[in-house]
Amino acid sequence: EIPSLAEMFKGYFKIGVAIPFKVLINPVEAKMVVKHFNSITSENEMKPESLQPREGEFDFSKADAYVKFAEENGLVVRGHTLVWHSQTPNWFFVDKDGKPASKELLLKRLENHIKTVVGRYKGRVYAWDVVNEAIDEAQPDGFRRSKWFEILGPEYIEKAFIWAHEADPNAKLFYNDYNTEIPAKREFIYKLVKSLKEKGVPIHGVGLQCHINISWPEIEEIENTIKLFSTIPGIEIHITELDMSVYTQAGEEYKTLPRDVAVRQGYRYRKLFDMLKKYKNVVTNVTFWGLKDDYSWLNQRGRFNYPLLFDKDYQAKLAYWALVSPNVLP
Ligand code: G3I
User: Fold this and answer.
1) Which atom, in ligand 1's list, is nearest to the CA of 86?
2) Residue 241 catalytic?
3) What is the rounded radius of gyration, in angstroms, for the C-alpha atoms of the chain?
4) With the C-alpha atoms ordered 132, 138, 141, 144, is the resulting torsion angle positive or negative?
5) Rounded to 5°, angle at Cα 10 from 266 and 313
6) Catalytic annotation, pick one of 45, 181, 236, 241
7) From the CB of 209, is ligand 1 less than 6 Å away?
8) How far apart, in Å, do the first and last CA atoms of the chain sit?
9) Residue 22 and residue 67: Cα distance in Å, rounded?
10) Residue to mutate (ligand 1; options 21, 23, 40, 43; most atoms within 8 A of CB)
11) Which residues are registered as beta bridge partners of 83?
């Protein structure tokens, strides 16, 4: 039997995985999750469109199954996600006449969604991605022009944290985003989180999604982001959606993973984890966005990608061995 990933990084951080529901009900895959990981995230099943497809009609059937699975197997759950511009039904944003919802109406709906969801899993979901991807560095003020922002202005962000905290005072509450290595975006996120903290808004961490590729960004830039965010007192960091595309441009495609690319990927995963281990006091969870290559969201428009640690046939890749066994890389 090959070594458990979670076991390898014990003493550093939790190792998590995002999984679709089909993994939970596949005995081989469920066993693999329990062996290698000690944290799980539902890839889509706790998003607003899944939990409240129509106003007031909550469907917790799948979300409940994740939480139960975690409890039965001694894992923790990262809840993903409460407030996002995507995978959120349009009914949130319109009134009964189909006109844009008023501020009051949208706030009421936001409060109800957050309190119902977080309240249901009180004490059982250890961390929530409360607000996802609210920063857009192309805007002069840094705020993404989502419907949330357009109707409510930036204060929807603090409201979301306050309501989540009311519903579960012990849950760790995160702001989560991608491309956090781009200096302009990193600065906007830093300013946002720092000002929330200074106002006394209950926020406990920043999630760095870390959808990286084989050459971008430099590991040093990820480190710079960790260094900057860890200067904010009371903030911890989770790597929330880690994967490493083997492509850097649209036209590239490998029908199978070439050995030299697999080796590069292995070295790069190793370098990333060696860096992360230095920050074990602030980086407390590292979650992969997928169990095996064929389940990755990066497989799009017929092009297969190889971003994870296990291949489609359940084999541990060189990327896995680079993390668990120091001498495998040539
Ligand atoms: O559930 C429907 C199904 O009924 C339908 O038949 C099928 C046909 O397309 O689509 C299914 O929905 C898909 C859903 O995943 C569930 O599989 C959507 O089309 C597809 O767009 C959706 O993609 C998800 C994506 O978020 C949507 O934004 C990915 O699985 C998921 O990995 C991805 O995750 C996001 C994080 O939440 C936030 N950060 C970025 C990350 C990657 O995009």
Assistant:
1) 28
2) yes
3) 20
4) negative
5) 45
6) 241
7) yes
8) 23
9) 15
10) 43
11) 131
Instruction: For ligand 1, atom 17, name the residue with the nearest CA.
Output: 44
**Helix axes 183-198 and 155-167, enclosed angle (nearest 10):** 60
- CA–CA dist 33, 314 (Å, integer): 12
Cα(61) to ligand 1 centroid in Å equals 18
The continuous run of DSSP H or E covering 193 comes out as: helix 183-198
Neighbours of 229 (CB within 10 A): 22
86 lines ligand 1 (CB under 6 A): yes
Specify the DSSP class assigned to residue 2. Answer: P
Read off the pTM. 0.98
CA 303 / ligand 1 centre spacing (Å):
16
**pLDDT recorded at residue 326:** 76
Ligand 1 mutation target, pool 44, 85, 213, 240, most atoms within 8 A of CB: 44
ipTM of model: 0.94
One-character DSSP codes across 107-154: HHHHHHHHHHHHHHTTTT--EEEEEES-B-TTSTT-B---HHHHHHTT
Q: How many CA atoms lie within 13 A of 220 on its CB side?
A: 0
The pLDDT confidence band at residue 49, using thresholds 50, 70 and 90, is very high
**116 neighbors 58 (Cβ within 8 angstroms):** yes
Mean of all residue pLDDT scores within the chain: 98
Decide: 53 in ligand 1 pocket, CB within 6 A.
no
Q: How many CB atoms lie within 10 A of CB 216?
A: 11
For the packed helices 103-120 and 155-167, what is the interaxial angle rounded to 10 degrees? 30
Predicted pLDDT of residue 319: 98
**β strands within the chain, DSSP E:** 14-19, 39-42, 76-83, 127-132, 172-177, 205-208, 211-213, 236-245, 283-288
